[in-house]
Amino acid sequence: MRHVLIIGGALAALTTNTYAADMPIAAPETYDWSGFYIGGQAGYGWADFEYEFNTTGHYNSVPGDALDASADGFIGGGHIGHNWQLDQMVAGLEISGYVGDLEDTDPSFFAGETVTNEVEWFLTVAPRFGYAFDNFLVYGKAGLAIGDVRSFMEDGTDYYEETNTQLGFTAGVGVEYGITENISVGVEYMYVNFGDENIAGESRALSDDSPWGSFTDSDLDTDIHTISGRISLRF
Predict the structure, then answer these.
(1) Greatest CA separation found in the chain?
(2) Domain 31-234: which CATH class?
(3) Are strands 114-133 and 136-154 parallel, antiparallel or unpaired?
């Protein structure tokens, strides 16, 4: 009887192992970055402003004078985009908008003169290209940027003010981590360059806004850097 039980157990084990070997093995699921997504971002930004004066003007001494200024502060906004994934390669297109506190006042050439510079808002449209390590994505992007840059010069008696909507380019790098199937978080560095914009015109009296009869003429180059945290919801 003992021999019969041993033989029966061996046959049952052999049958079970044979059946298990014939069953298909499910491939492990990989994280899918494809699809539409929306989200928000917030962080720190700084802008560099460089004036180069073209003529002897009211707010500079001689042609060729250069004035450097800067502003930094909080930035935030939202983004929307779409990703396509092929194996581990991820490509996409993203639109991002930013507002913030990029405004500062700096001294000019002469005592009592100041220049205030401000980036009021900016928007970027950029393709993204990345490589996915399952739910971890490393990417770079480059594209177009548009935004409002304000310049305000004054010396206590008169002022000159101009705001221009400028077109430029952007480039950046970032990392994202998928914490669930539809939610990811990340960190991104971005650079924006608006190039040279001519700032020229007649100043006006601070007291009554009347024409002052003095002129300024300069080229303003504006660069922006941002570091922001992101959260995205994918559909």
Answers:
(1) 120
(2) mainly beta
(3) antiparallel
